[in-house]
Specification:
It is built from 5 helices and 4 strands; from the N terminus they run βαβααββαα. It is mostly helical.
């Protein structure tokens, strides 16, 4: 996964972008731990430490906001959503705001939302099953 830094985070990290390898089940929290485990030079004077900046930052994953630090990043599902988004953007470049472009954009949004819903619904269902095995 490529992690891009902007503004103060870029200054504190000392780089524009870094690559991290994710395993299935890795979360935003585990990615942030890996980012903070990297040894870095002192940030420029007046720049807060990267940990403080990240604690107040927002995060986008394939152009979709990720708010829950416990959410699984699921690289495969996100890749599918990103491919759909790329198709929609390509269609818009070629055809403008055509019906086909609108359809592809709708599909891309739904695939991203589906991944987000799975991150919320499956853990809740698993917790319910752990509490009441007969519920499944």
């Amino acid at each position: 996964m490529n992690v891009r830094y902007f503004a103060a985070a870029r200054a504190a990290a000392g780089v524009d972008e870094e690559r991290y390898d994710l395993a299935d089940g890795d979360t935003l929290a585990s990615l942030l731990e890996a980012i903070l485990a990297v040894e870095r030079p002192e940030p420029p004077a007046g720049t807060p430490p990267l940990a403080r900046i990240l604690s107040r930052s927002s995060f986008l994953l394939n152009e979709v906001a990720v708010r829950d630090h416990a959410a699984s990043l699921k690289p495969a599902e996100l890749h599918v959503a990103k491919e759909s988004l790329d198709k929609a953007e390509s269609a818009f470049s070629a055809d403008g705001a055509s019906a086909r472009t609108a359809d592809l954009a709708y599909i891309a949004v739904r695939k991203a939302e589906l991944g987000d819903r799975r991150d919320r619904i499956l853990p809740a269902h698993e917790a319910q099953l752990a509490h009441d095995p007969q519920a499944g």
